[in-house]
User: Fold this.
Amino acid sequence: MKVCMIGAGYVGLVSGTCFADIGHNVVCVDNDEDKINTLKKGDIPIYEPGLKELVNKNVKAGRLSFTTSIREGVEQSLFLFIAVGTPPKENGEPDLSSIEKVAQEIGAAMNEYKIVVEKSTVPVQTGKWVRTVVERFSRQMKDFDVASNPEFLREGSAIDDFLHPDRVVLGVESKKAEEKLLELYKPIDAPKIVTDIASAELIKHASNSFLSMKISFINAISILCEKSGADVLKVAEGMGTDKRIGRAFLNAGLGFGGFCFPKDLKAFIGIAAKLGYDFGLLKEVERINQEQMLGAVAKIEDTLWNLRDKKIGVLGLAFKPNTDDMRFAPSITIIKELQKHGATIKAYDPVSMTRAKTVMPDIEYCDDAYQVAQGADAVILVTEWEEFQNLDLKRIRDSMRQPVFLDGRNVFEPDKMKELGFIYSGVGR
Ligand code: UDX
Assistant:
């Protein structure tokens, strides 16, 4: 089937490539000429394990191509996926102007029946606006459908998430769109949840905020664990074994980051308010998350007495492992707070340092974890990259000025770290 993916950002590029890989004919459109040229050369503008190989394989097979022309994509495809960015405005509301622009261009280029599918995360009721705009700009051509097909991809495992999802959500307004979308997703072996458009839009918001809530919940529990001598890993295991709760997303740490959870949570609180509901529960989820990051700084300060002129080493900068994404990374909040208290920062991340330098030019970037530890008064592990699990911890300890170690993701065993001579703290243990 013929698919046009408009927006070759993270979601669009991964989804478009995977649609090609399951046998469809896909053209990815983006108005960023540099990006399209990069893709045409066989390079990819983001870091995602396996994506480059998959792009090249499908380009070679003739199933995947790139263009800057929406018209070209629209004319040749049945499915028009909108996967452009919806970045937060100052007030936290998503900026939907790119979606509007794309809808206008789709309308203007419409030549026959099409299914316009929202892939970007959008407020409930966006579907109605997309329909109105396409209709106006196509000079009242009404023979098209709008649908919502939210994505649940996680950075770092996006390809696998696309090809082996827990479910595929399809919000539709006609039988025809339902049948076509089911055919498009036929090669994907997963339950297909077919709903109306508004429900599909809400499923995305509700799922992301529920997962954020799980993380904040266990982070709040981690504070009680620290105060009562309990171990949050055991508590999470004990809770998570109950099938009704589930163990996933119960890892206490330094808070959630990334371009989805913080942004979507804020947006959903705003959407609820606009619909006349004060979603206080989610405001608490946000507050707990913020406090979890700042709490790490307080812990370090408690152990070192003063932070002024202290050298703090930071291991891991990306918002989570296996990505170079720095957007809303907890490391930024933590480092800025440490700097506010007068500390100087040395840091290392296996892949995100180029991006990190643009956000935090005023820290010392190191070649590896050992260089970070050299002369440091404390080290904080912020992102649990696999390579940190195999560190020569004795070497780390010996090179530090004071052996203070805050394990922000509970990677190490507290007893072992203490035996090695660290003044160690984890999160909630
Ligand atoms: C998320 C959703 O999982 C995905 O479905 C949606 O499409 C986009 O947003 P992503 O942002 O890539 O995906 O990362 P995810 O793996 O969900 O982690 C988000 C943040 O939560 C990270 O900062 C991670 O460190 C943190 N996290 C996750 C925890 O602190 N504890 C956990 O138990 C799980």
